[in-house]
Design goal:
alpha+beta; 38% helix
């Protein structure tokens, strides 16, 4: 693959969970390791009476807002993912000494919440476009889900995250047409369709995480060149078993300063 902005797979640092492999990170990221990344498998909530009982029990471990949201949803995938997101926010709202990325099952999260005495009440504020954030914890979070996973990224600086399960889709060619010339050239340079599909998802999670960081929406982000965006943001990319791809996006140090000044 001849894709200058999409390096080959790197060896994952020892601190990473065994099931999550670091694909690539921008140079700025190597100088700071403050991002907390939580990954939750919601497979235990999927199907059967026992799974439904566990899901109902898990709702009781959420903050008031997330619990009300979950109860309004019918049993099924949407409710399962909503409950999973709420559980990760319970972990994110309380500081601990965990090593990240932290990969957990639902039952393990419930146990962690029980160990600290029950759920934490969380207050939210909403930014432009309805993007939620913690109101009073001095931290920023972002959520994403795909397939059987929910992820949450947490940091002192603004952050965006996206996870996608790789699926062969007829609509992919339509999406590719909106990519930049350099990105399409990188895709065309792939040696096989399988390699092309993997690169497509690496580019796509970059775009999605950028859209979630900035709040511009994926329709606007789809046509932007991710290589050019590296002047203002940086990424960490991960891959998971069963062909999942994930990216975390944040402003570069200089862009972050300018962004804060503009907001002020």
């Amino acid at each position: 693959m001849a894709a200058g902005n999409f390096p080959a797979v790197l060896t994952a640092p020892d601190a990473l969970a065994d099931s999550v492999e670091l694909l690539w990170q921008s140079d700025w990221v190597k100088e700071r390791e403050k991002v907390k990344l939580y990954l939750l498998s919601v497979e235990e909530l999927n199907g059967g009476a026992e799974a439904e009982r566990l899901c109902s029990r898990a709702v009781g471990y959420l903050d008031t807002h997330r619990a009300e949201k979950a109860r309004k949803l019918r049993a099924g995938n949407a409710r399962m993912l909503s409950v999973g997101a709420g559980l990760l926010l319970q972990l994110a709202a309380v500081k601990d000494g965990s090593i990240y990325p932290l990969c957990l099952k639902v039952s393990e999260v419930l146990h962690k919440i029980e160990e600290r005495g029950g759920p934490t009440e969380i207050r939210y504020r909403y930014e432009a476009g309805g993007k939620p954030d913690f109101e009073d914890r001095g931290l920023h979070f972002n959520l994403s889900h795909s397939g059987r996973y929910v992820c949450c990224a947490l940091d002192e600086a603004e952050i965006g995250v996206d996870i996608q399960q790789m699926r062969t889709a007829k609509s992919r060619s339509l999406v590719e047409r909106r990519f930049s010339e350099k990105e399409r050239a990188a895709l065309d340079a792939c040696d096989s369709e399988a390699e092309r599909e993997r690169l497509f998802y690496r580019i796509w999670v970059r775009k999605e995480s950028y859209a979630k960081l900035t709040g511009i929406g994926i329709a606007a982000a789809a046509g932007l060149d991710t290589g050019e965006l590296e002047r203002s943001v940086y990424w960490q990319e991960y891959t998971l078993p069963e062909e999942y791809f994930m990216a975390v996006c944040q402003y570069s140090p200089q862009e972050r300063e300018d962004h804060v000044v503009c907001l002020g």
